[in-house]
Amino acid sequence: MSTVRPARPRPARMSPADVMRVGGSGLRSRPMRVFLSALGIAIGIAAMIGVVGISASSSEQLNRTLDALGTNLLTVAPGQSFGGGDARLPVDAAKMIGAIGPVESVSQVGLTDAKVYRNDHVPKEETGGIGVYAARTDLPGTVGARVVAGRWLTGADARYPAVVLGARAAEQLAVSRVGDGAQVWLGGRWCTVVGILGPDELVPELDAAALVGWSEAEHDLGFDGYATTIYTRASDDAVADVQAVLGATANPEDPSSVQVSRPSDALTAKQAAHSALNGLLLGLGAVALLVGGVGVANTMVISVLERRAEIGLRRALGATRAQIRTQFLCESLLLSALGGVSGVLLGIGITAAFAASQGWPTLVPAWAMAGGLAATLVIGGLAGFYPALRAARLPPTEALAAA
Fold this sequence. Notes:
Elements: H1 16-28, H2 31-69, E1 73-78, H3 93-98, E2 103-111, E3 116-117, E4 131-135, H4 139-143, E5 147-150, E6 162-165, H5 167-172, E7 183-186, E8 189-197, E9 209-213, H6 214-220, E10 229-234, H7 239-250, E11 258-261, H8 263-306, H9 308-316, H10 321-358, H11 366-393, H12 396-402
Parallel strand pairs: 4-9, 6-8
Antiparallel strand pairs: 1-10, 1-11, 2-4, 2-10, 3-7, 5-8, 6-9, 7-8
């Protein structure tokens, strides 16, 4: 007579909602420990998001600056002569450069020997690093300088002492207004401040400059009429070609004594230097994230040791090893995700605050946020894998007896 053996009962399957609920209950039972572990993850993610966000915001600001000021500005300055002395640009160098076909505009400044002070009682050696330059009336249109107060120099200014101050020069001389009553002691006489320039990232040397009319500088300040810098705007599609011939055009007799540069290249190089530093900071953020992952692993291992009674009871009631393993792995992932989301929000906040303080647009790349969350899930999975295996391998009788 054959005996029919009863079918072995199948363990109940846990739905995703059940897994989340069971995993979340384990976290709710230890709020302070969960908070501290999630904080470690959040700090690492916030550091990485902050670095990427600040770098992206800085790059966006640079792009906007270059879009506004253009990358087609070239400068010509005298270098060293063949004999090793200081060279000078020919008096008609600007005129010759203006004859180049793709050149759109040319202007120039010349450094004088005059000094500028807040008043006539300031010691002569305290110049504050402010240079007095003769400037052409077309300078703002060529370099893209902005007059934020007052006006720029005109042809009429050659008949009386007038000066336009760069942003830093105005700050050092404590000049905040223009017109009647706004004067500085320049070249041994009082000069009326008729304008103040805004900061110029493309031509920062103008920030610490006091600019007077070209004719007025020749007549009253002993200016010799030789330009120290010539600014050239070329058409966008011919910048490289113009740059290649500027030296020979400005000084046909001695092209090697002419220094030609592109100011936008300096800004790009500065951004590249910042990017190298950002790589180091990203590495530090990754270390902080790794430390946070170790904290999650430590929390989960301790949780397994403290909850052996719960594990044994669940196993005795029919829970499978896979279900126990899934429960603890879910707890680890939820803990890491909590830290990851908090870290992303904190990183965005840090980026927004820093960008606002610098006057930059706030930009946090989507890939950085998605990558940060993905990194936390990977860290959570790796950190919870061993504790989950350990919990699943506990025999029910041993777990209940240890409790």
